[in-house]
């Protein structure tokens, strides 16, 4: 089935509070997607982030990013937890095109604390109902919620700082008595974190229900690795390659590639796949189940790491001196398919691929990714990223969140390379973003994903991420809702290439 979608992380939406939210701005974007004939909304990981906003280095693989909570919605029907005057002190950034994760977190946490207080003290029917729902959520989610709320609290309150390896031995090693004492001492802080996760889930469920009603699927993203400083590693040290004190001897990364000449040293701990296999990959299945409760399609980041992953000694300063280590292979995906039959998965198979990686993807039955920017300058006529080499079992992009925008990419080419692009696509290059999107929509790939930055024909200043660069990423935001003419133009394009939802129904 031919489909089209748009990549936009909710932090990039407009709105109040320093970053985008899953409230009114997200609902407006859903209406744009429906009007423009789109079937998929692709997002980055929805997990908690630090003040830098990177969603690929989270403190939890199961929890959600509560900075995405919409505070204005808490003033309205169904919540009534805040007065509208609570919005008066919302942070107002100097540059509305740049998300301020720190200010957003500080402001929203303060408002959530006020909302929790009202919910607990009020006898209004709406608040009695919310209390009952909150208790049910805490009970049903206790498997991950209790540990996350404790971990996040300890990171905030302990004088030793947020690194769990620096905590007092009892807390570092999860001694029952130490944890019980901490749960009593920091009960209010722990409750607030549980409440924030509850509010996120309430708002998210409403958004997802609206998306489903419009025939739009949400594509989530699961990073292959987790942060060393995460609740997952703190609670499950046996699942990772760590020493007795909890430190890794080798960490994850990728060798030199298109994005970085020295490779990328991610620093994540490596999995102990032998131990995971003995459990039937239970932790991973729990992780994917949690994500599947939030989204309709799962994109697995760094798919090639399941065939073989790049292991780098922890003493290295770059990723150059690493080596490949075999991953779990098809056994892992067979276990996932058995536990979660029907889960729609897309493999992010970019980077250094091999016949073994391609075979694993095909054996698992997942579509891979094709990026048109990688198909130029056509030095290899058989490059599978080139438009004429695409296959149906793939997802086509002009560029992903890791690439430059199409305008920025095109302007970075020398004139000879630009000429080759123009001749290959038979275009003049005057509207390069829309011209490359048209080429992507024409691909035989069953799913095409475009970015909002390309819909707006934005340059490199609107780029979401530069791999290998530690600061300044993830912050780009829209300043206003997308105009109707863009929806009209995109709808016409997807109709020409048979990707509109109503065309699928006729077929």
Question: What's the quick description here?
Answer:
It contains 18 helices and twelve strands. By secondary structure, the chain is an alpha/beta fold.
Give the structural class.
alpha/beta
Radius of gyration: 23 Å
Strand order in the sheet with the most strands: 9-6-3-2-1-12-11-10
Shape: globular
Count of strand segments: 12
Biggest sheet architecture: 8 strands, parallel
Share of residues in strands:
5-15%
Structure annotation, total helices: 18
Helix amount, in percent?
25-40%
Supply the key terms.
39% helix; alpha/beta; 12 strands; globular; single chain; 507 residues; eight-stranded parallel beta sheet
Task: Describe this protein's structure.
- This protein is α/β, with parallel strands linked by helices and 507 residues long.
- The chain has 18 helices and twelve strands.
- The chain has helices at residues 24-35, 101-121, 125-140, 142-157, 169-172, 176-185, 187-213, 231-235, 273-278, 282-292, 330-339, 355-364, 406-412, 415-425, 432-442, 452-455, 484-496, 501-506; strands spanning 3-7, 40-42, 217-222, 250-254, 264-269, 297-300, 308-313, 323-326, 344-347, 368-371, 394-397, 447-451.
- It has an eight-stranded parallel sheet with strand order 9-6-3-2-1-12-11-10. The protein has a four-stranded antiparallel sheet with strand order 5-4-7-8, with no helix packed on it.
- Helix 3 packs across helix 4.
